[in-house]
Amino acid sequence: MTEQISPEAAATHWARTRRLMWTCLILWAIFSFIIHFFVSALNTVTFIGFPLGFYMAGQGSLIVFVVLIFWYATRQNGIDEEFGLAED
Amino acid sequence: MATQQDAFIANLGRIYGVYVGGFVGFVILMAILEYFGVPFRYILWGYLGLTIAIYAFIGIIARTAMVSEYYVAGRKVPAVYNGMATGADWMSGASFVGMAGTLYVLGYDGLAFVLGWTGGYVLVAVLLAPFLRKFGAYTIPDFLGTRFGGNLPRLLGIIVLFACSFTYVTAQVYASGIIASQFLGIDFNYAVFAGLIGILFCSMLGGMRAVTWTQVAQYIVLIIAYLVPAIWMSYAVTGVPVPQLMYGVVLDDITTMEQAIIAAGDTSLKPHVQPFTNYSPRDFFFLIFCLMVGTASLPHILMRFFTTPTVREARKSVGWSLFFIFLLYFTAPAYAAFAKYNVMSLFVQGESALLAFEAIPDWMYRWGSIEGHSLVVICGEKALSLEAVRAACDAKGFAEGVPFSELNLNKDMIVLSTPEIAGMPWFVVGLVGAGGFAAALSTADGLLLAIANALSHDIYYRMIDPMADSKRRLFVAKVILLVVAICAALLARTKPSDILSMVAWAFSLAGAGLFAPLVLGVWDAKANRAGAVAGIIAGFGLTLFYLIGNVYGFDFTKGTGDEISWWGVASISAGIFGIPAAFVVMFVVSRLTPEPSREMQDMIIRLRVPRGAQIMEQTH
C-alpha cells in the first residue's frame, strides 16, 4: 500500500497496544504464578468436588489462558479498527 | 491449480467432517471385527496401516512446486485449522504418552508441566505471533537476519534452532519407532524406519502445505484417542462420562485410600493432591517459567503462525491453538487420577494395605517383562514373575505382600497400558496406539521442516546462492529435509539415552537464545544488531554452559563430581539464568551502540500495525 500512516495515529495506536499488552501480561503472571503461591490455602476450599488449589493448576488457569487470548484478540482488533489501522 | 486450491479451502469443513465420520466409522468397524473374533494383532495393524495411509495420501495430494506453498502453506490456513495443526505440532509423542504418567507419579507437582506448556501461548499471542505474521518471513532466522541485518544474527538463530530442535526430532522418531514396534510386534530397528517413512511422506513433497493438512488429520486422531479411554474410565468409575469434571470426586477417594495406606504403616507415600512433595516451591515456579518462555520461543511452533491469511487471523489462531491443546492437557490430570484410582484400589482391600502376591494382576508381569525397559518395578526389581516379585520383596522384608510405595510404574506406560489395565477391548488399545503414533509423527514433521527450512532458506538461499531459481530452491529444500530425517532416524536407532534426555533442554535453550531477540525485535525499536548478537550469545551461552556443567561437568562425563550447581537450580530450569541475561545484555548493548537506521525504525513502525503489505515481500 502507498498511503502513509500519520506518525501521531501510529504513536497513539502503539501506546494503546502497549497498555493492552501489559494488562495481558499481568493477568498471565497472576494465573501462571501468583495464584499458585497460595495453593495450600486454596486447597481447604472445595470447588465442584475439587480442592481449589489443585483445580486452579489443573484446569482453572488453563481456562483463563484460553479466554484471555480470545479476549486479547478481540480487544486488539478493536484498537486497530478505531485507528483505521486494521487490515482491509 | 489456484481455483482447485480455493475450492479445497472453501470446503474444509466438509472434507474434515467426512474424515472424522470416516475415522469414527473405522473405529466402529474395528469393534465389530473384534466382536467377531478377528485376532487383536490384525486390529492393531489395521489402525497403524490405515492412519499411515491417510497421512501419506494427504502428503501426496498436497505436494507443491511453489516456494511460498512449500514454506508457509501459501498463507491461506484459516485460524481454526491452524489451531488444530499447531495442537498436533505441539503435542509430542512424549506429551501424549508421558503427560498423564508424569501426573500419576508426581501428583500436584506434575501440574507444572500442564501450566508451563499452556501458559506460554499467552506470550505467543500478545508479544509475537501477530507481528511475526506481519513481518512475512519464511523462518525464524529469516526474521532475525532481516530485522537486525546481516548474516551473523541469522547464523546465531540457526544455531539456537538446531540446538533445540534436533534432539527433539530424534526423540519423536524414537517414540514413533517404540510405538510401531510395540503395536506391530516388529523389531525396533525396522520400526524406526516405519516411522520415518510416515514422516517423510507428509513433509517432503509438500512442505508446510502438506504438513499443515496432515497435522489437522493427526490432531483429530490423537484427540479422539486420548479422550475415549478417559471417558470410558470416568463412566466405569463414576457413571458420568465427563472425566474432566468427575475426577474431583476420584481425587477425594484417592486421598481416603492414601490415608488408609499411610495408617497401615506405609509412610513413604506422597499424597497425590498435596503440593511440593517432589519439587520445592522454587523449583516448581522456575520450571513453569522456563517451560512457558521456551514454548513461546520454539521455532516449529512460531512458524505455524506464518501460515494464516491475515494478522487478525494469526491472533485468533493462537487462541484456537491453545483451545485444542487445552482439550488434551485438561484431560491428562483426570486420566492420571483414574489410573491411580484403579491401581490403588488393588491395595486397600484389607487392613494391611498390602497387595497379596497371588493377587498381583497379570498386566504387571506382561508390561514388566518387556525386554529393554523397566516399566513395572516391584520392590526394586523388574516384575518378571510371581517368584521374582516374592523374592525381591522378601529381601526387603515384605513377606506378606507388596506395599503401594514399592510399586513403581514407568510414566511412559500409563497411557499406553491403561486401556488394557482397565479391561477395555483391543479396538480401544489400537486407537490409543494410533493416537500416540499421530502425536509423534506430527511433531516430528513440524520440527523437521523447521530445521530443514532454516538450512535451505537461510543458509543455502540467503547466504550461499541468492540467485537460485525456485525450482532449484525447492530441490535443495527437499534434499536437505531427507538428509536431516535420515540422520535423526539413524541416531534414534542407536537408542541414545543421553540425546533423549536432552529433549528437556530444548525449552531452556530456545527461551534463552530466541525469546529476547524476538520480543525486543518487535517491542524495542532501538534494539540493534550488536545488541541482538550479544544477547543471543549471552543467553544461549550461559544456559548451555549451565546445562553441560550441571549434568556432565566439564570432563563431559556424568557423576564424576565436577558438576556445577548454582543455588541448586535443576538443569531443566537452566533458562532461569539465560533468559533474563539475554534481555539485559541485549538492551544494554543496543543502548551503547549506534541505533538502527531510519529505514529500519520506520519498518518497525509499519510492523506494529496490521494495515498495509507485509514487510518482506518474498520474491517468488
What's the overall average pLDDT of chain B, rounded? 92
Derived from helix and strand composition plus strand pairing, the structural class of chain A reads: mainly alpha
Shape, principal axes of CA atoms of chain B: globular
- Indicate the radius of gyration of chain A in whole angstroms: 19 Å
Unreliable stretches of chain A, pLDDT < 50, 5 or more residues? none
Q: Percent of residues of chain A in beta strands?
A: under 5%
Span between termini of chain B: 16 Å
Number of helices of chain B: 26
Strand order of the largest sheet of chain B: 3-2-5
Please give the share of residues in helix of chain B. over 70%
**Can you tell me the overall shape of chain A?**
elongated
By DSSP, the count of extended strands of chain B is: 5
Cα separation of the termini of chain A: 11 Å
In this structure, how is the largest beta sheet of chain A organized? 2 strands, antiparallel
Element-level helix/strand string of chain A:
HHEEH
What is shown here, in short?
The complex is a heterodimer of chains A (88) and B (620). Chain A is mainly alpha-helical.
Write the layout of secondary structure elements.
The complex is a heterodimer of chains A (88) and B (620).
Chain A: H1 7-37, H2 39-42, E1 46-47, E2 50-51, H3 52-82
Antiparallel strand pairs in A: 1-2
Helix pairs in contact in A: 1-3
Chain B: H1 2-10, H2 12-35, H3 40-61, H4 67-72, H5 79-90, H6 93-106, H7 111-135, H8 140-148, H9 151-184, H10 188-203, H11 207-238, H12 243-263, H13 281-295, H14 299-302, H15 311-329, H16 332-345, E1 354-355, H17 362-368, E2 376-378, E3 381-382, H18 386-395, E4 402-403, E5 407-409, H19 414-421, H20 426-464, H21 470-493, H22 497-501, H23 505-523, H24 529-551, H25 575-592, H26 598-607
Antiparallel strand pairs in B: 1-4, 2-3, 2-5
Helix pairs in contact in B: 2-20, 3-10, 3-11, 3-20, 5-11, 5-15, 5-20, 6-16, 6-20, 7-13, 7-15, 8-9, 9-10, 9-20, 9-21, 9-23, 9-24, 10-20, 10-21, 11-12, 11-16, 11-20, 12-16, 13-23, 16-19, 19-20, 20-21, 23-24, 23-25, 24-25
